[in-house]
């Protein structure tokens, strides 16, 4: 593995039109959550039932786009058995599926909201409420084999990134791996009307001290935080075109925009969305999702930490 971007972020999508049967526009919920409108919540999107359903649908779309649940070279490690930390696990879709696929490994999902399953889950799957950016992660040094974080930038301030990555470095075992996956805020091939909407979203996020452009700096953040073997890649998801996956992602992304109405105003979205849906198809718009993978350097001490934190 080397430090390189595999292709230009402005290239057209190359996703096959054959979509995995696992993709569902309206997936079955694993649990329910009461809607809470919280303007003081660090998470920019509404914490609602619809948002949890959207995250589940998005999981299957991303799994199809990236051709798997992870990009890090850790399959043999997972099959042998390792502790995996899923930060910002949301409804726990990724955590649950991975714990089923790799029964010898232990999976721990943490999130500030308790939207994850509490009873029906594999024996090697654990969830706990945790504010990853507010406190030190509740795990010993050198205790985790793989850290996975996806689509968490909506809940992070720009200043949180450096501290959080340092925490990941602390809890990871020497030789352990980390994977960060985040989307661009703006679409590619967008119209003038759509760019006006994204300018407003970017302005609001910036006023909340969030970083709307962090997705393209994931690899540099990892490299400057002491990680090695950094590799970045991305996949482009079409919006409303290129077959079933484009239609499914357009529905998913429309729901995401609607989940922002508490920040940018429902009238703004109601005026923009009908036009935008048609323009996505006309201009072949798409969203780039970026993935960065890196390894914590080996040291002379390779002993395992005890797992008394479960």
UniProtKB/TrEMBL annotation:
In this record, what's one Pfam family?
Methyltransf_25
Q: Which InterPro entries match?
A: Methyltransf_25, SAM-dependent_MTases_sf
Q: Domain of life here?
A: Eukaryota
Q: Which Gene3D superfamilies match?
A: Vaccinia Virus protein VP39
Q: Methyltransferase domain location, by residue? A: 84-176
What is the name listed in the Swiss-Prot or TrEMBL entry for this protein? Methyltransferase domain-containing protein
């Amino acid at each position: 593995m080397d430090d390189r971007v595999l292709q230009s972020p402005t290239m057209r999508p190359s996703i096959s039109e054959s979509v995995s049967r696992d993709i569902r526009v309206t997936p079955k919920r694993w649990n329910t959550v009461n809607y809470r409108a919280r303007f003081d919540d660090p998470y920019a999107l509404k914490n609602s039932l619809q948002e949890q359903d959207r995250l589940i649908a998005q999981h299957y779309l991303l799994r199809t786009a990236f051709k798997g649940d992870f990009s890090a070279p850790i399959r043999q490690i997972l099959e042998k058995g390792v502790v995996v930390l899923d930060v910002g696990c949301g409804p726990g879709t990724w955590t649950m599926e991975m714990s089923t696929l790799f029964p010898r490994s232990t999976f721990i999902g943490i999130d500030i909201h308790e939207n994850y399953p509490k009873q029906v889950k594999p024996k090697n799957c654990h969830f706990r409420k945790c504010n990853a950016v507010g406190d030190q992660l509740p795990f010993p040094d050198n205790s985790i084999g793989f850290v996975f974080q996806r689509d968490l930038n909506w809940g992070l301030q720009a200043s949180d990134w450096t501290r959080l990555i340092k925490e990941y470095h602390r809890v990871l075992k020497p030789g352990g791996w980390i994977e960060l996956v985040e989307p661009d805020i703006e679409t590619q091939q967008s119209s003038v009307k759509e760019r006006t909407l994204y300018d407003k979203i970017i302005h609001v996020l910036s006023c909340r001290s969030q970083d709307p452009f962090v997705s393209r700096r994931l690899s540099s953040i990892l490299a400057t935080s002491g990680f090695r073997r950094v590799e970045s890649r991305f996949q482009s998801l079409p919006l409303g075109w290129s077959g079933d996956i484009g239609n499914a992602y357009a529905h998913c992304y429309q729901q995401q925009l609607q989940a922002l109405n508490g920040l940018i105003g429902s009238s703004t979205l109601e005026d923009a969305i009908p036009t935008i849906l048609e323009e996505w198809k006309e201009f072949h718009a798409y969203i780039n999702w970026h993935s960065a993978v890196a390894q914590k350097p080996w040291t002379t001490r390779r002993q395992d930490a005890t797992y008394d934190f479960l």
